[in-house]
Write a structure and sequence with these properties.
Layout lengths: L9 E8 L11 E2 L5 E5 L2 E6 L4 E5 L6 E6 L5 E6 L6 E5 L5 E5 L7 E6 L5 E6 L6 E5 L4 E6 L6 E6 L6 E6 L2 E8 L2 E6 L11 E6 L4 E6 L4 E5 L2 E6 L7 E6 L4 E5 L3 E5 L5 E6 L12 E7 L2 E6 L4 E5 L7 E4 L7 E6 L5 E6 L3 E6 L4 E7 L4 E6 L5 E6 L3 E6 L5 E6 L5 E6 L5 E6 L4 E5 L5 E6 L6 E6 L5 E6 L4 E5 L4 E2 L35 E7 L4 E6 L3 E6 L10 E4 L5 E6 L5 E6 L5 E7 L4 H4 L28 H8 L11 H12 L14 E8 L11 E2 L5 E5 L2 E6 L4 E5 L6 E6 L5 E6 L6 E5 L5 E5 L7 E6 L5 E6 L6 E5 L4 E6 L6 E6 L6 E6 L2 E8 L2 E6 L11 E6 L5 E6 L3 E6 L2 E7 L5 E7 L2 E6 L3 E5 L6 E6 ...
């Protein structure tokens, strides 16, 4: 039996034994409900002493190391370690996340503190700069950030009596911070002579600018402002780790094990020495203290929590204990009682009561303990030690029975036999020793088959066999008690094992991922009765599997809480609980086992488990029990949208190539052509891989997208308007609730979402910076103020935006599989749903993060792929369409019901006021009532139902429906085949827009005298399009194979079509019926051309490198052009019909004589003089200039010359359509460039009268019609790109001054080498020996000289005179502009030079100075507003010291404000001054 589905049972965390005392401080508080909040491993714990009950917050993914309590004492902030650590703010009543703050710190979050009113939170990182960051935590927004210190910061606190002031302390420093605007400015505390410079461990702020701090020496330092004014010597005998302020005064706790209470002026009240109390012990060290009224909470280094009542201070009450520092590996379960035994490297063995949740016995051993076992009658407890010995104790009183040392390496595993007669002891040297219990543990045998350390042992039920696992993953069997290895597998085939704790073996194959050889699973325990297996691994995860699980990659449920490796896991004797222990977090977790969970039990499940969903969506294997993916969906999931070259890369690539090409561009180039083109009409709609991307606007126009164009189609006038702001494929589209704005998301390296107005077709906001590769889904909130977007990066990141401000509100990883849709809740703007591959998730915004909960399916359905989703009539109801044709109805996160709606996937769904409309792969549109009880009406999309006014022809009945929208009395339907249809409620269907179906489109031909064109595509259709006002498809014919080229005969009556199998056909141009067909080649026919005039000959070029020439009248092949070394790309006839020009894939330009096909050599200068009937060639001198600078990266795929031989249009691999003057001689010609196609443009053709240009997009399957606007016709409009690839000097060039200024480099003086060479050592640096622990301060400003040190102690110190700046000669004019202004009605002049702002009085000639800058000032402006008279802003050169928030904070002090701009490195600091 393969474990194809996860087990139906469940684990719920019931109790955590332990408290994180080591390496943490100030992490223990009373909440408003008099509960105690602290953390252990990756779990926040809220403990109620009254009820002896714990609640858990499990929103973290790694060790929590810092905690702060909100001033109202309900909310808690916790910070974790990790590569991308984050802060969670959560509610201690509900243990639900309120806000997540992320994307700023690295390594970990060392300290946290709320300000007085709880609106802001400050955090300190563990990065190299110990960054200090201030948050508006409710919005999840960073307000300010600054480097904290070069060494560790241990504590930070807001000054509760002075707004915007903070104090931080740490290794050999204390800093006083002021927050002004969004700048955090520190001043170092001055120790002076009052006290020694030493490490400060904790602090508390008081009135009158006083700060009290606890030092490493045990003294308390008292600060006034930034100066140390006094010390309280010997407050503690050793370092003071914790200081807590309350209404009554202050409490301090230190390494000496004492708690001291002080009044508000820091006079001592009392001292409590915990070491002297009943519970005390030598070496007790206090890490956290909290004083509330007459209760004091104390947390110790060794993971205990004490509660002290002040008037009974000698009787502290022990409310929590755990193992001390050191790895925890040993775990054993009592065979008959609800007891668990643990042993650790802290040398203690402890017995826990699983019913009372308490420690009932503890015994300290001589050596670290690595494993434990209790014998069958529960009398003896065996402990394996790290030194190779083992000890047996009596469980009753923990007295020693025997101590034996037969080995030198650690004992990692031991177990008693089921009959109680033997003890098997596994050692790290690879041996297992067998001891007789009744014979006072005399050695009976030895098993020596393993070459690696022993990891696990199991006895058979009859005690006759032992199975072992070792470090190499080998599984071996031995006969007992002698220890002889069993090599015959038949012998142990029927053996029943008393326990299953081995990690290798057929029965547990499924616990290993499919394609992994890792050994990161540390422990397993089988529950035979419940047929379930629990495992513990190196990633802190406890998993439940079905037992037995035979096939690799079985499904599981997973539970997080432990932060690092989980070393051991065991079922309790009655299978009620699972006990797991953490190695590095040395905590003991007790999980309640809930068999075959029912839906009602689901309500017990703490909602915060959703963060790492217990219904593992991370099951490491494919879902083998789910039906195969529908072919369409399968195809869609394969699409990656990755590009070799992104449009964003072009400027960079150009720069690189320009360097190489500098020498080659001496020839003067033609200017760009005077003509321009304007996009007029687009045939096509993107339905094959997009959904729900089609809507009515406010005024009844239709908005959709194709290629890189968003189209607004007016169906009354049959006209289109375009939004052309994108430069690559648009993948998604959403409309604002008011139907006047649209959001579109595109493909790109840093893809953007554009929000634009449907009336003006102008962008309102462009959002980028958080997605990769592309944006696949967008949705507006019901109030239209927010926008959600989903990326196609590996984590399918979800971002919530305030789109008008362009501000990211929240971000979260969505899913490892593709997400198809995001929908915002119309009733609650903070909620949304996402649906995708085996994915339905319900999200809630929490500050800067999103908390996701997986939909709970229960027994009602299977974990299916969701293709579409909408919200229903209340905020709780949601509906989703599956890949199997069902509609799932959800209430909150629970699946309530499924309804069969379509045959095949439900691709689109739309909510109405009273009901729903759905569309599926079966080509049916269904109308439903408001609860999906009844299907009210269905419309099948059939050719027979097409109304007469249709703009084309339906290719097949029941095309797959990808988008549905309602409005204006109609249903709008988008199909996979690229059609847009309007269904009238009464039944008739009108086809409005259509394009080619999936498959590349290459073949294009324009008619010799009518405004029509023909296209042929890999979708196996040949189509005729009307380019005149009716803009519709006139005819279509299905072909047996796809085609790549086509051509009208000169009289327009015949149409030749080249197919992909090497055949070609000639059809009647009016009826598209076959006239004749030939099949002489095996490879693709790439180009086909009638000779000019009467069209006597037909040239057919193929990918087998030949051009065949046929006589049209006799239908015979009359010539073959040989000599090309690569496939043929383009062919053209000369005017006489006697000469063929051929281009090949190897970039050869060849000439052949017709009709025999004899190769001719023609000098390149002569080619232009020959008259050509058409020019579609991309090679030769005449079109040398059409190849871009980055011609090695991209190909020019097509070209076409106007009949007046003036304008050459080209299409290339990057999706650009360009116009050049003809001939385009000389490299890198100037051009006009147009973006509308997304990927490669495969073909371009002018119409017979040059009035229109028709272009084809290969992968975007669109046919675009552009109008040709003659020179002189100028209508200003956006996106008409006039840029060329290289602007050389003769292009207007620069004035010499401008050139020089353009090349000025403002490299930071402080960081570059000195201009003057300097040698020797400065005097004040000569005598000083730098001490090891003083790390030099890291500063971007010029280094300030240290104070002079002299050895002559006796000399009187002379006071150092200050220098005062009096006059500055000079003004910075060489590279700055507009930097001199009058002030005060012309009395003063303001300007700058060097790093000084100067106010020069005209009458007196005196100067005053602004000297806050530390490098060259480059710009200056004066505020002209009467309200801000005399305010000046100056910007300087520097290099960022830290990343600042993107928006300036509008906080004004009297005369200086600082602003740091994070986007520019040249002017990151800007000062405003009066």
């Amino acid at each position: 039996m393969a474990a194809r589905s996860a087990p139906n049972c469940h684990l719920r965390l019931e109790w955590v034994y332990g408290y994180r005392g080591h390496q943490c401080r100030n992490n223990l508080y009373y909440t408003a409900a008099k509960e105690i909040v602290y953390f252990v491993a990756g779990v926040g714990v809220v403990y109620s002493p009254r009820e002896h009950r714990q609640k858990f917050y499990r929103g973290h993914s790694d060790d929590i190391i810092s905690l702060a309590l909100h001033p109202e004492r309900v909310l808690v902030a916790t910070g974790q370690v990790g590569k991308e650590p984050y802060i969670c703010v959560w509610d201690s009543y509900t243990v639900q996340t309120v806000s997540v703050l992320k994307d700023v710190h690295t390594h970990g979050i060392a300290c946290l503190a709320f300000d007085l009113d709880g609106q802001r939170l400050v955090s300190v990182g563990l990065d190299s700069k110990n960054a200090v960051c201030v948050w508006d935590w409710k919005r999840g927004k960073m307000l300010s950030m600054a480097p904290g210190h070069t060494d560790r910061i241990f504590d930070i606190s807001w000054d509760l009596y002075q707004p915007n002031k903070l104090v931080s302390c740490g290794v050999k420093h204390i800093k006083f911070w002021s927050l002004c605007g969004n700048a955090l400015t520190p001043k170092r505390g001055v120790f002076g002579k009052t006290g020694d410079l030493q490490t400060i461990l904790c602090l508390a702020c008081a009135r009158d600018e006083l700060t009290y701090s606890g030092a490493l020496s045990g003294d308390i330092y008292v600060w006034k402002g930034i100066n140390l004014i006094r010390t309280i010597q010997g407050a503690h005998a050793a370092g003071i780790f914790s200081m807590n302020a309350c209404e009554e005064g202050f409490a301090t706790g230190g390494r000496d094990g004492c708690i001291r209470l002080w009044d508000l002026t820091f006079k001592p009240i009392t001292v409590i020495d915990l070491r002297e109390t009943d519970q005390g012990y030598k070496g007790l060290s206090v890490r956290s203290v909290c004083w509330r009224g007459d209760h004091i909470l104390v947390g110790t280094q060794d993971s205990e929590i004490f509660e002290i009542v002040v008037h009974e201070r000698n009787k502290p009450f022990l409310i929590m204990q755990g193992h001390c520092e050191g790895e925890l590996w040993a775990l054993a379960i009592h065979p008959t009682k609800p007891l668990a035994v643990t042993g650790s490297d802290d040398r203690s063995v402890r017995i826990w009561s699983l019913v009372d949740h308490a420690l009932i016995a503890r015994c300290n051993m001589e050596e670290p303990i690595r494993c434990a076992a209790v014998n069958v009658d529960g009398i003896h407890l065996a402990l394996g030690m790290k030194d190779g010995s083992f000890t047996v104790l009596r469980v009753r009183d923990m007295t020693e029975v025997v101590h034996i040392k037969d080995r030198k390496e650690a004992i990692h595993e031991l177990k008693y036999s089921p009959d109680g007669m033997y003890l098997a002891v596994g050692c790290n040297d690879g041996s297992v020793d067998i001891y007789g219990v009744a014979q006072r543990y005399k050695k009976f045998g030895e098993c020596v088959g393993s070459v690696s350390f022993i990891t696990h042992l199991d006895w058979s039920s009859d005690s006759r066999y032992l199975q072992t696992n070792d470090g190499n993953g080998k599984r071996l069997f031995y006969r007992m008690p002698g220890g002889k290895e069993v090599t015959n597998k038949e012998e142990i085939k029927g053996v029943h094992w008393a326990s299953w704790t081995c990690v290798s073996g057929l029965e547990v194959n499924g616990i290993w991922p499919k394609y992994s050889d890792t050994n990161d699973i540390n422990s397993v325990d089988g529950n035979y009765i419940g047929q379930v297996l629990v495992t513990a691994d190196d990633y802190g995860i406890v998993k439940l599997f079905r037992y037995p699980c035979l096939r690799k990659g079985a499904k599981f449920k997973k539970y997080i809480g432990h932060s690092a490796h989980v070393t051991n896991v065991r079922w309790s004797h009655d299978y009620q609980w699972v006990i797991s222990i953490g190695g590095a977090d040395h905590s003991v977790f007790q999980w309640k086992f809930i068999p075959e969970r029912k839906l009602k039990d689901a309500l017990h499940i703490a909602p915060q488990e959703s963060l790492a969903d217990s219904n593992s969506d991370e099951s490491d294997s494919d879902l083998s029990d789910v039906p195969e993916l529908d072919s369409e969906i399968e195809q869609e999931t394969q699409l990656t949208y990755r590009r070799q070259v992104y449009k964003e890369d072009l400027p960079q690539l150009k720069e690189q190539y320009k360097e190489k090409q500098k020498s080659g561009t001496s020839k003067r180039r033609e200017r760009a052509p005077g003509n321009s083109i304007r996009l007029h009409f687009v045939h096509g709609y993107r339905g094959y891989d997009c959904r729900s991307n089609l809507f009515y606007t406010q005024i009844g126009e239709i908005v959709y997208h194709v290629a890189a164009v968003a189209v607004i189609y007016n169906r009354q006038q049959n006209t289109q308007r375009f939004y052309l702001g994108h430069d690559d494929d648009i993948l998604c589209l959403a409309i604002h609730p008011l139907k006047d704005y649209v959001a579109t998301g595109q493909v790109g390296r840093d893809p953007s979402v554009h929000i634009w107005d449907t009336e003006t077709v102008k962008p309102l906001s462009i959002l980028k910076g958080y997605h990769q590769y592309g944006v696949c889904a967008v949705d507006f909130s019901a109030d239209g103020k927010r926008l959600a977007s989903v990326g196609i990066d590996d984590g399918h990141t979800i971002v919530l935006w305030d789109w008008k401000k362009g501000e990211k509100l929240s971000v979260a990883r969505g899913s490892k599989d593709k997400i198809f849709v995001v929908k915002m809740n119309p009733y609650v703007p903070d909620k949304l749903i996402t649906a995708g591959i085996k994915h339905m998730k319900f999200w809630r915004r929490a500050g800067g993060g999103l908390i996701g909960r997986k939909g709970y399916i229960g027994t009602l359905g299977k974990n299916d792929t969701m293709m579409c989703a909408v919200y229903g009539w209340t905020e709780e109801m949601a509906f989703s369409g599956t890949s199997t044709g069902d509609v799932c109805i959800w209430r909150d996160i629970f699946l309530v019901k499924t309804v069969k709606a379509h045959d095949g996937p439900v691709f689109s769904m739309h909510a109405l006021e009273k009901g729903f409309v759905t569309g599926g792969k079966d080509g049916v549109v269904a109308l439903w009532d408001d609860s999906f009880e009844r299907c009210l009406k269905t419309y099948a999309i059939k050719r027979a139902a097409l109304a007469p006014g249709s703009k084309g022809l339906l290719l097949e009945d029941n095309p797959s429906i990808r988008a549905i929208s309602l409005g204006h009395g109609h249903i709008l339907v988008g199909t996979k085949n690229g059609e847009i249809l309007e269904v009238d409620k009464s039944g008739p269907i009108t086809l409005l827009v259509q394009g080619h179906m999936e498959g590349e489109v290459w073949g294009l031909a324009t008619h010799p005298y009518l405004p029509i064109c023909a296209t042929v595509s890999d979708d196996k259709t040949l189509r005729i399009w009307d380019l005149s006002p009716s803009h519709c498809m006139l005819a279509v014919r299905k072909l047996k194979k796809g085609g790549r080229c086509c051509c009208f005969s000169p009289d327009g009556k015949a149409l030749a079509v080249g197919l992909n199998d090497g055949s070609f056909l000639m059809a009647n141009a009016d009826t598209l019926e076959d006239l004749v067909s030939f099949h002489h080649r095996k490879d693709i026919i790439s180009d086909i051309r009638f000779s000019p005039g009467s069209g006597k000959y037909l040239a057919v070029a193929s990918h087998d490198s030949f051009v065949d020439i046929y006589n049209v009248m006799s239908s015979k092949r009359v010539g073959i052009c040989k000599g090309a070394t690569s496939y043929i790309t383009h062919i053209d006839w000369d005017i006489r019909g006697k000469l063929l020009q051929v281009n090949t894939g190897a970039k050869e330009q060849l000439f052949f004589e017709a009709p025999r096909g004899k190769k001719q050599t023609i000098p390149s200068v002569e080619v232009e003089k020959l008259g050509w009937a058409s020019w579609t060639s991309v090679l030769g001198l005449c079109c040398e200039g059409i190849w871009p600078v980055i011609g090695e990266v991209t190909d020019v795929t097509a070209s076409c010359l106007t009949s007046d031989k003036m304008i050459l249009a080209t299409g290339d691999d990057l999706g650009f359509v360009k116009l050049f003057r003809y001939p385009a001689k000389g490299k890198f010609g100037k051009f006009k460039r147009y973006v509308a196609h997304s990927a490669h443009v495969t073909n371009v053709r002018w119409t017979y009268d040059d009035s229109m240009l028709v272009t084809l997009g290969g992968a975007d399957m669109s046919l675009m019609v552009w109008t040709n606007e003659m020179e002189g016709y100028r209508e200003k409009r956006p996106y008409d790109s006039e840029e060329s690839d290289i602007d050389s000097e003769e292009d207007g060039g620069y004035d010499s001054d401008v050139t020089r200024e353009n090349e000025v480099s403002y490299t930071i003086r402080a960081l570059s080498t000195n201009i003057r060479p300097m040698f020797g050592i400065k005097p004040h640096l000569q005598q000083k020996e730098p001490s090891i622990d003083e790390r030099p301060p890291v500063s971007r400003a010029p280094p300030q000289p240290e104070k002079l040190q002299t050895n002559n102690v006796g000399k009187k110190k002379r006071p150092v005179e200050d220098l005062v700046l009096e006059l500055v000669f000079g003004y910075r004019g060489r590279d700055c502009r507009n930097n001199v202004h009058y002030l005060n009605d012309g009395d003063d002049i303001i300007y700058h030079t060097a790093s000084v702002g100067i106010l020069h009085n005209v009458a007196t000639g005196t100067q005053s100075f602004y000297q806050e800058h530390n490098d060259d000032i480059l710009c200056l402006t004066v505020n002209q507003h009467p309200k801000f008279i005399n305010i000046v802003a100056t910007g300087q050169v520097t290099q960022q010291t830290c990343q600042a928030p993107k928006s300036p904070a509008e906080l004004v002090t009297t005369n200086v404000f600082l602003w740091q701009n994070s986007d520019q490195i040249q002017i990151p600091s800007l000062s405003l001054w009066e």
